[in-house]
Specification:
Layout (H helix, E strand, L loop, with lengths): L9 H11 L11 H26 L13 H10 L6 E3 L5 H7 L3 H8 L33 H19 L12 E6 L6 H12 L4 E7 L2 E2 L2 E2 L9 H4 L7 E6 L3 H16 L5 E6 L18 H9 L2 H11 L4 H23 L32 E2 L1 H15 L3 E5 L27 H5 L4 E3 L4 H14 L2 E5 L10 H8 L2 H4 L9 E6 L15 H5 L5 E3 L4 H13 L4 E6 L10 E2 L13 E4 L4 E5 L3 H13 L5 E5 L2 E3 L3 H11 L2 E8 L4 H12 L9 E5 L8 H7 L3 H13 L1
Parallel strand pairs: 1-2, 2-3, 3-7, 6-7, 9-10, 9-11, 11-12, 12-14, 13-14, 17-18, 17-20, 20-21
Antiparallel strand pairs: 4-5, 8-15, 13-19, 16-18
Length: 713
Amino acid sequence: MVRSRALGSDEEIAKRNAATDAGGETTFRIERSSLLAAYRLLLLSREIDAAALRLRRQGKAFFQMSSAGHEIVGIAASLTLRPGEAWVYPYYRDQALVLGLGVPTADILRQVMGKATDPASGGRTMPNHFSSPKLRIVSQSSPTGTQFLQAVGTAEAGRLIRRAGALRQGGRPDEVVYVSSGEGATSQGEFYEAVNAAILGELPVLFVIEDNEYAISVPVEEQTAGGSISRVLSGFEGLHIECVDGLDLASACRGLERAVAWSRSGRGPSLVHARVVRLAPHSDSDEDSAYRPERERSEVNARDPLPRLESLLGEAGIEASELESIRLSVVDEVRAAVDAVEKENDPSGSTAIVHVFDPSPAIKVETPAIEDGEPITLVDAIHRTLADEMERNALIVIFGEDVADVSRAAYLDEVRGKGGVFKVTAGLQRRFGSDRVFNTPLAEAAIVGRAVGMAVRGSRPVVEIQFLDFVWPAMNQIRSELALMRWRSNGSFECPVVIRIPSGGYLRGGSIYHSQSAEAIFCHTPGLRVVMPSNARDAAGLLRTALRSKDPVLFLEPKHLYRQAHARRPYPGSDYAVPFGRASTVRKGDDVTVVTYGSLVEKCRRAADVLASSGFECEILDLRSLVPYDWERIRMSIERTGRLVVVHEEPRSFGFGAEIAARAADELFEHLDAPVGRIGGSDAWVGYAPALEEAALPQVDDIVSLLEKTCRF
């Protein structure tokens, strides 16, 4: 008898299943048609694996990953879920699942061969990265474990859509979200963040862990405490857990039906821990003989679920001739699909930059601003814009740490929340309700990951990261998921998320973890819009554009400017919007072009006043938008002034100014009458003591000195 390190023997699994059956019932019958469908799906997945390996050896494919040994769980799920109704975040060994849900054989082979006709990605992703908007199979990425949080967000958005009555989004009262992975991915912190969030929200998320006892070469006992993720999670109150034999169709179907029923009933998340087997190496680039003993490999082969399924079919009275007919039809189907797909076109290199951003931005022209009225702070401008847009769009939701007005529902009248650490969101929860404005656990990856899933589902999330210095746990979700979703899915999925982040220093006392700037890191991420206002009017206009954009937007808020008098402007109105990529001319001049943004705009203005006393007039351009930036306006100004100085708060080396300076030197060299000047923060950190902060950040005197040097060159 082969033992599973994770779940115990076959007998132990059977006992646990019997103990959790309603009324102690241990029998489970599967309809004849379902048995035949399961057999065909398993054979089809195996035949596709074999074809992919042949194509790889022929140089017609470039990577191959087998699903052999994992098929039964996916087949059981496809028999249990409602194809096209449940939202699915699959695992890269879930080939049988997606086939069962309706993904055509040819489409999987198109991805294997990297064809332009691949509907999942247009040749952009590796094989086994399944995707189908029609079937609600969400575009899959390679980083393991990122999908868990997204599944939680999709479940949250489904609930919001149902409560908002947005039937066009296809909301169902018993909608469930399916997310699966191997046991190795459960070592990721994001997995625990997702389980915690799903329990807290009582969300209909079905977590399926296909435990083959190996994460490439690392065995489960070196991955998971006690060797069993279901045991680890057994103390999580509110999580329904099923342990199943993932090599037995009846066991898998029984456990999945119970888990799905639990989540559909509104009782919260469920987890199915399925013991499976990996019959092939991790991928075609792996040699499992290097880490799997020969005896273990022979034991693994003995656990192949195919003979067990064939035995079950025989017990159901299905003739061998009928099974042979199915096998031959599968071989013919795959052979015909390979022949057809081989003739299809490969992607053109010219399409490599297509679908990085939405090709048709919602805001193309800056609308007129209301100029009269009492000037308001930048904080108030952001708050009013959020409120206006939430009134306009019932699918906008705001969440993050401390953003809510009420911290404990049990004390609605007595205990007030923060409304954001800078009070930007104060009052919004009381106005729009806890479904649309709510606090989250202190987990930045969870905040952004849930937002990705919500946006994919049709909601419009606005999330807050309290300080730029704390965004780094979310970088995998930002760079690998949020910014990449449109491109990797070949434009079939989009992620309109706005991430609000207070940024920068000039605060006194902010110190290392509350005063840094790092916008260039995000600007280097294709697919992510990056903006930074310098005043209340632009904050309102840029935020409104972000909230109506179909692209993800990083909205950086210079917290030094939140309540500064010089950043105040009248509220420009509920329709005012600033197109991305349009700079504003803060001051006109003919002697030098100053390109800047954020907190440095005012400091450059003050420096220009000083320089004017020496007879030099500076033209100051406030970029407002960093991705994209207004190169045309920069070019026109430099052609007139002949000089350029770039000023920003983040460190000078490798900072955003380096891009502007390099492009000016490359494209406008003949117009330059002086070297391009750059001022930025020091290549160190902003410290706590005022003297350390002042030394780390650009000051007015520093700008005056460089401007004068440039003008006199």
